[in-house]
Amino acid sequence: xxxxxxxxxxxxxxDTEDDIRRLIHYIFNVCKTTFDDIRPGHxxxxxxxxxxxxxxxxxxxxxxxxxxxxxxxxxxxGKFVGNLIKHRIISFSEMDFVRPDEAYELAHYIANAYGEExxxxxxxxxxxxxxxxxxxVDAISWRTGKRFDKSFEIKWLWAMINSWEKRREERFINNxxxxxxxxxxxxxx
Length: 189
Prior knowledge:
Oligomer: single chain
Largest sheet: 5 strands, antiparallel
Distance between the termini: 21 Å
Structural class: alpha+beta
CATH architecture: 2-Layer Sandwich
Number of helices: 7
CATH class: Alpha Beta
């Protein structure tokens, strides 16, 4: 079962455009998101993206362009300082047997849901014992210019994760080789 961390609610704030840039650069860091040298499976990929990015897929994985788009969105609505971005982390234990491509699938799924109102950058970090997802949700709606307000957010996130896990389990039930692939990735099979 994953752990969800709402970073802003732990007293860390992202109040300036420079804070946005630092967070996005951290999330998109290629040393953390492209090669898994921790687990025996050693997966390689581009495990970053941005939901509601107004450009091509090749552009959406460039951290500078994602930063510029969030900053431009905030400026368009006259928001320059104070609570500009929400930082969320979803971390998996080794016993979840989640591969980077599966975590990326979940990150993309959640980012698209946030992206209905807020530009959302995401990255799957592979540089620690636990594969984890970082989400950076622009706190200013690209549709309305209103500030982020989801009082039910933690329940909503759990519902999204549970829905994804249910589909994942069904895939494993219908295809045992898929489960074996996960076990092999973690070197337990």
